[in-house]
């Protein structure tokens, strides 16, 4: 979105990390909200991020077709499913609706299995991210079946009898989903127009002369009506903090919301006289002539990929996440979409302030913020720099380096870390790890480099402290009480300050070993994963099929239908229970509802990790007699 990219409150890394207590009682706990929704302020990032502060709410706003086989082939060339972890928003040509597209359909929607996919939610919902109404805010500490969409399935609201959802996306503090009819539903915070629909000064027909409360319209799932009116059949969505994008089956895109910079609201399209927020979806005139096959979104930037393999980028480019030079005094120019020099790209991905593109040969390119080595670019290619200004190959992930015909098929980035899903079902990661963002244990070989950097940091601190103490002794000898007190304060600390740990290049992430029955995984173990020497070359026993990344937490889905979480979150985004704020290694997420009963169980298919909340799609499977 993962993001990330994120409005979630990031606490100090000095938080206690003594022992992780995995949930054992399977309860689906709910904690009451810490504050009423009507008195909200957008949460601000507090930790090591170059992101703009999230700011307060803005003032109120007024409001010849190819065959199926050919379409499947085009989709397969993109190397990834038509679902992205972070969504982008779209729009029309102005305050009204967009003209009907004359493009032929090039993207195939997700399948419609039965029983259908149902939505689960957890994390923090103070800003209405759950979509359960103004009375259900606060924390949901383990996965809970979304009662509203469960009822909507029974009533046939999502595309007919028994229909459910196709695609999910968790933005900073808002959510987007696509139902089986291709309609986009949205809910969550709408201060900067992230929902694609007005929520302020909307008349209430049941109370003449009165308007709906904005919280009532924001905290419940509603369709983005202008897309429905335009006959826009969505197949993908992506979302950042306040920007959203939808990709249609004909390859057209709609965008809405706004972008932020380090000094506040940047705007939407940068055009003179244009509002800084775009309330309803619009089509960007620069991009209307192209057909698109993929979209991805960081905190405040967007990537869109054409059917010919060209990448377009726009938004906030202060950390070079746009892959081109943006002059600070003219940063508004980044709001105009421009294409990169890359060619023959198969799919795109993004972290909060860094970006990725994978070409049809499987080569991975990265650019943007690299302060924690989250791009994965090797030192010989410039990976030691804080910023990667232009697309640079990630040599560790090239097919030739990976071997065994493996390649990257999905990328999910957080604030300062990145996950890579390979074609054999293994997951690799790089970047920040002091909050266990990479899910690697103490026995992982990559921790050797982390320990060496810690030791070097401590040694530098000891030398500096020695010099300080020497000055104190000199001051004492000179009998200068005032100076002595000053130097005593400088040297009072007896521990070195913490440093930000990171893994500079992608390494394998291990998952709990499944218990095998015959040749198929049947039920997985709660034991933590242990390092094996063949981890770099052998696929996992239970391959991972989907990944997503939030600010500092992550989710992964295995082929057998389990979901795993790891990383750091104080808003219950791990889904591991009330008192679990961190998980060092991937840990299976459980709840009473998710685990099922004697009749059957839920098999997870997809997840979406947002700034403070998480979404998940799962299907019910009856147990065999």
Describe, in plain words, how this protein is organized in 3D.
The protein is of the alpha+beta class. The protein is built from 8 helices and 33 strands. The strands form 9 sheets. A 5-stranded antiparallel beta sheet has the order 1-3-2-33-32. A 4-stranded antiparallel beta sheet has the order 4-5-6-7. It has a 4-stranded antiparallel beta sheet with strand order 8-9-10-13, with no helix packed on it. α6 runs antiparallel to α7 (481-490). The longest helix has 31 residues, at 447-477. The protein is globular, with a radius of gyration of 24 Å.
In short:
The chain is an alpha+beta fold and 625 residues long.
Which short descriptors sum up this protein?
five-stranded antiparallel beta sheet; 30% strand; four-stranded antiparallel beta sheet; globular; alpha+beta; 625 residues; single chain
Layout of strands and helices, then pairs:
Layout: E1 30-31, H1 68-76, E2 118-124, E3 139-145, H2 147-155, E4 165-170, E5 174-179, E6 184-188, H3 214-218, E7 222-223, H4 225-229, E8 234-239, E9 243-248, E10 253-257, E11 259-261, E12 264-267, E13 278-282, E14 292-297, E15 301-306, E16 311-315, E17 338-339, E18 345-350, E19 354-359, E20 364-369, E21 387-393, H5 399-402, E22 408-413, E23 417-422, E24 427-432, H6 447-477, H7 481-490, E25 502-509, E26 514-517, E27 520-524, E28 544-549, E29 553-558, E30 563-568, E31 582-588, H8 592-595, E32 600-609, E33 613-622
Antiparallel strand pairs: 1-3, 2-3, 2-33, 4-5, 5-6, 6-7, 8-9, 9-10, 10-13, 11-12, 14-15, 15-16, 16-17, 18-19, 19-20, 20-21, 22-23, 23-24, 24-25, 26-27, 28-29, 29-30, 30-31, 32-33
């Amino acid at each position: 979105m993962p993001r990330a990219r994120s409005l979630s409150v990031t606490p100090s890394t000095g938080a206690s990390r003594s022992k992780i207590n995995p949930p054992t009682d399977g309860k689906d706990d709910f904690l009451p909200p810490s504050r009423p929704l009507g008195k909200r302020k957008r949460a601000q990032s507090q930790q090591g991020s170059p992101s703009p502060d999230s700011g307060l709410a803005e003032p109120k706003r007024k409001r010849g077709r190819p065959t199926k086989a050919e379409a499947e082939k085009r989709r397969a060339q993109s190397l990834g499913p038509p679902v992205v972890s972070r969504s982008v928003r779209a729009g029309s040509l102005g305050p009204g609706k967009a003209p009907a597209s004359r493009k032929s359909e090039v993207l195939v929607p997700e399948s419609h299995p039965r029983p259908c996919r149902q939505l689960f939610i957890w994390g923090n919902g103070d800003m209405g991210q759950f979509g359960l109404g103004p009375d259900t805010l606060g924390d949901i500490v383990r996965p809970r079946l979304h009662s509203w969409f469960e009822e909507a399935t029974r009533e046939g609201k999502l595309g007919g009898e028994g229909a459910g959802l196709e695609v999910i996306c968790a933005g900073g503090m808002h959510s987007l989903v696509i139902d089986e009819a291709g309609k986009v539903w949205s809910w969550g915070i709408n201060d900067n127009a992230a929902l694609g629909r007005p929520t302020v000064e909307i008349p209430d027909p049941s109370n003449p002369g009165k308007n709906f409360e904005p919280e009532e319209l924001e905290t419940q799932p509603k369709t983005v009506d202008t897309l429905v009116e335009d006959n826009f059949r969505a197949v993908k969505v992506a979302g950042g903090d306040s920007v959203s994008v939808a990709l249609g089956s004909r390859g057209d895109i709609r965008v809405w919301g706004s972008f932020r910079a380090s000094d506040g609201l940047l705007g939407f399209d940068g055009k003179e006289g244009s509002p800084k927020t775009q309330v309803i979806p619009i089509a960007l005139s620069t991009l209307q002539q192209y057909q698109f096959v993929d979209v991805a979104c960081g905190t405040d930037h967007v990537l869109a990929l054409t059917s010919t393999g060209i990448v377009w980028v726009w938004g906030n480019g202060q950390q070079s996440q746009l892959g081109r030079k943006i002059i600070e005094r003219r940063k508004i120019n980044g709001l105009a979409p421009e294409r990169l020099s890359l060619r023959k790209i198969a799919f795109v991905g993004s972290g909060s302030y860094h970006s990725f593109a994978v070409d049809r040969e499987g080569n991975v390119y990265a650019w943007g913020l690299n302060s924690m080595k989250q791009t994965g670019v090797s030192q010989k290619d410039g990976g030691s720099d804080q910023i990667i200004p232009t697309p640079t190959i990630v040599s560790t992930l090239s097919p030739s380096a990976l071997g065994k015909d493996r390649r990257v098929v999905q990328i999910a980035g957080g604030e300062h870390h990145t996950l890579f899903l390979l074609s054999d079902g293994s997951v690799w990661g790089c970047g920040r790890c002091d909050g266990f963002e990479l899910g690697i244990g103490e026995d992982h070989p990559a921790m050797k480099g982390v320990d060496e950097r810690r030791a070097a940091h401590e040694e530098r601190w000891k030398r500096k402290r020695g010099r300080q103490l020497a000055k104190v002794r000199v001051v004492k000898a000179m009998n200068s009480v005032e100076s002595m007190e000053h130097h005593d304060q400088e040297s009072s600390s007896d521990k070195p300050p913490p440093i930000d740990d990171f893994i500079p290049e992608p390494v394998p992430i291990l998952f709990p070993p499944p218990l095998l029955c015959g040749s198929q995984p049947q039920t997985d173990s709660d034991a933590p994963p242990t390092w094996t020497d063949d981890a770099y070359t052998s696929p996992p026993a239970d391959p991972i099929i989907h990944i997503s990344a939030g600010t500092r937490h992550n989710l992964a889905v295995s082929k057998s239908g389990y979901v795993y979480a790891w990383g750091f979150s104080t808003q219950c985004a791990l889904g591991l229970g009330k008192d679990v704020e961190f998980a060092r290694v991937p840990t299976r997420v459980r709840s009473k509802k998710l685990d099922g009963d004697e009749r059957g169980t839920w098999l997870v298919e997809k997840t979406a990790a947002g700034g403070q909340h998480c979404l998940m799609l799962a299907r019910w499977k009856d147990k065999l007699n």
